Amino acid sequence: MITADPLHAAAALAGAAAWLLAGRRPGPARARLLLAGVGVVERAPRRSPGWLLPGLRSRREWLCLPVATVLAVLGESVLPLIAGAAAVPLVGRRLRAGERRRERDRRAEAVIALCGAVAGELRAGFQPGQALVMAAGATGALGPAEPAVVAAARFGGDVPRALLDAAREPGTDGLAGVAACWRVALDSGAGLGAGLDRLEAALREERDQREELRAQLAGARSTTGLLALLPVVGLAMGWALGAEPLRVLLHTPAGLMCLLIGGALEAAGLCWAARIVRGGKR
């Protein structure tokens, strides 16, 4: 059993927060600092405290541990620590899924910009290969496949095949449409700019539909999050009234049973709500 006063709890939280915020300089960056110039070691630029934020954003799931530490100290039990450690991989997976979704959206938006940029360069009088090279550098829509596509466009390679290879990345499905327009223009002589204009309009319409769907589901997500926080609000109200809810939940058989059943129902409710949201997306 853990016994400590609030001062120890604050110290533990501060130490955990400092560990999360502190970030060591990566090895390559340190090597560049030492080897910069010709035999001269440069002084590292003075950075503002804002440099701590990227480290915190990359380890947000570890914030579960300081919170669990405080609850463990206040409740004088190791159960919150166990729950916090178990929540770290789950929260991390959820955060990484959100990052992947944002990256897919960013790439899809870049593909839309690529279509418009290539069409604009064609209208300005540039050849298709030149237009693609300039638009690819300006939009960054091709990602890791950009060198292969640029080489194919400059030296007369198979541009549609290179675009199809680039379309395998998440969020770049629209590049398959660009490849199809390019192939049709090569085979039949149809206007590439007109096809890209129509493709851009279709991709924008698809993007707008996704955004509208997310806006409609935002209310359901907000309601789910609010319902998930209600037990925490109840515990806070009980603590304010002097009922010592943590002691009851963590140190009595009836409290442990209520904690187990309540946690199971909470998890089941969140899974059910997430399934409803996924069904709405489909």
From TrEMBL:
Chain ranges of the Type II secretion system protein GspF domain: 117-237
Keyword annotations for this protein, in alphabetical order, are: Cell membrane, Coiled coil, Membrane, Transmembrane, Transmembrane helix
One Pfam annotation reads T2SSF
- Transmembrane portions of the chain: 67-92, 224-242, 254-277
Provide the membrane topology annotation. Multi-pass membrane protein
Its subcellular locations are:
Cell membrane
Species assigned in the record: Streptomyces jumonjinensis
Q: Which InterPro entries match?
A: T2SS_GspF_dom (IPR018076)
Q: Which residues form a coiled coil?
A: 196-223
Q: How is this protein annotated for GO cellular component?
A: plasma membrane
Q: What is this protein called?
A: Type II secretion system protein GspF domain-containing protein
